[in-house]
Amino acid sequence: RQFGRPRIELVITPDLSLLRESELRAVSELEVCRPGVGSITFHGVTDCRRLDVESLVHLDVGEVLVYPVQGLKPPPGQGLNKCSTVCMYQCWPPNGRGNLEDTSSRERYKGKIRAMTEEKRARFIDYDCSTGVWKFQVEHF
């Protein structure tokens, strides 16, 4: 029995269950999304034949994990451990959902998000204080 809010399932595009084995071998720009939480686009071609994507990708508010179990991550460039763009929702400033008071405050906070992104060896793309959307790119996980 599950308590609390039900977990929102991942949406995988394209729908891998509808693809033939030959199509699963070369899925282009695979996207994994958890509605209202975030998404990851795995760039290039991914061989999805032996990937249990739902168990390998964990998206939660403010958190993204690919290969959450230690020891299962393949070398960079293989499987899902590849160049990807991550878009996280609900990443609000510390004062909550409200907008920061002025443009300079918003820019300062955006700068903090940029620095935090780069500290994690990711490439900052954008952050919007008014929508809580943070977008960045990683070379691998």
Automatic annotation (TrEMBL):
Superkingdom of the source species: Eukaryota
This protein's UniProt keywords: mRNA transport, Nuclear pore complex, Nucleus, Protein transport, Translocation, Transport
Predominant localisation class: nucleus
Presence of the UniProt keyword Cell membrane in the record: no
Classification via PROSITE patterns: NUP_C (PS51434)
Gene Ontology cellular component list: nuclear pore cytoplasmic filaments
InterPro entries according to UniProt: Nucleoporin_S59-like (IPR037665), Nup98_auto-Pept-S59_dom (IPR007230), Nup98_auto-Pept-S59_dom_sf (IPR036903)
UniProt-annotated location(s): Nucleus, Nuclear pore complex
GO biological process, one term: mRNA transport
Domain Peptidase S59 residue range list: 7-141
Molecular-function annotations in GO: nuclear localization sequence binding; RNA binding; structural constituent of nuclear pore
Family stated for the protein in its record: Belongs to the nucleoporin GLFG family.
Identification of the protein by name: Peptidase S59 domain-containing protein
